[in-house]
Amino acid sequence: MPNNKPLLSACLIVRDTGNYLQKCLASIKNIVDEIVIVDTGSKDNSVDVARQFTSNIYFFKWIDDMSPARNISLDKANGEWILSIDADEYLQPVSKNYIKEILNEPRVIAYSCKLRYTRGYTAENGNLFLFRNNHGIRFNGIMHESIAASLEKLISSGEYKIGDCDLFFDHSGWDNNVGNKYNRDLKLVQKELEFHPENGMLWNRIALIYHHTGKKELARSTSEKALNLVRKNNEYLPVEANVYALAIQIGYSEPNDVELIVDEALAHYPGNPTFLYTKARLYIGKNEYDQAIDLFRQLLILGETEDFDHSVPHQLNLFNELAYDGIATCFFKMKQYLQASEFYLKALQYNDKKEYRVKSNLCISLAESDKNQCCQ
Prior knowledge:
It is a single chain. This protein has 3 domains: 168 residues, Spore Coat Polysaccharide Biosynthesis Protein SpsA, Chain A (Alpha-Beta Complex); 72 residues, no CATH class; 100 residues, Serine Threonine Protein Phosphatase 5, Tetratricopeptide repeat, CATH 1.25.40. The longest helix is centred in the C-terminal third of the chain and has 22 residues. Helix 7 runs antiparallel to helix 8, helix 7 packs parallel to helix 9 and helix 10 runs antiparallel to helix 11. With 376 residues, it is an alpha/beta fold. The protein is built from 15 helices and 8 strands.
């Protein structure tokens, strides 16, 4: 008998996501066989938008916990595989034949997908959006809900593995209603901290919210707490590089304090592009230009090879514009004006800023002036 079971079910939970749900569902409609929507109390047009794509719409009262709603969507899915994404994420074009091909791998239980969370940053690997419809796979976690714990149990038997795929998603949720998201996230993280008070990543999330809502002192003290918990737990997971990144971004009263944290971060995460760039800028501040240039050149190489950890995001312009600008600044300060002009023009190729043209022309003028003085 033929198997009439759908191959792939898309599962989403939504609430007041009408601004971007259309884009999300339109991006996946041609590669999934079923769309399941669980609405947790929308007051906008989210349900009307969803009805344009599916009749499989269910309602679940929001209880300040992501996982139950996610798991309801899994319970309602009929597909052999699940694509679980957020309503503010959308898939870059991919063929259905490719989907069929990767879902035919017998030993793969889930696929790691790429997500570009913020425009202008590198994509993050390790997002388990695509997985088998298996009753042993369920979400856990109030705020940062995940199927990772379920997968570990199934993978430990040796029967299954996690595969890599080319599915690439973009995130658009921070483009709208940022304040509402911060308020919701703060409530959920605080609730999850009741169960996991020693989790540095949760404290880091609170510090980030404080930072973006202008509560500078709370952000700084909470960031310090997060960093101390990472040190205490002594695991230094790849994602915990974000804790160091925020601590550096928030800053401290003394430059030496920042440099100590940057050096500590590089000791645990060598080759991290964000930390390399920050260290290079600190070298400039200490007039150690040769060391700074070495790090900026290393960033240019990393941009070509992409040989760095992709589990955390990095600004894309670190690998071109900002690296060239950094080298140009070093040569300028060393009064090597022609070299400085050359690298300002290289930065200009990636960002047509008037500033780079002006600096390049200034460098040429200074070089000519030095030449004339030497000839006198």
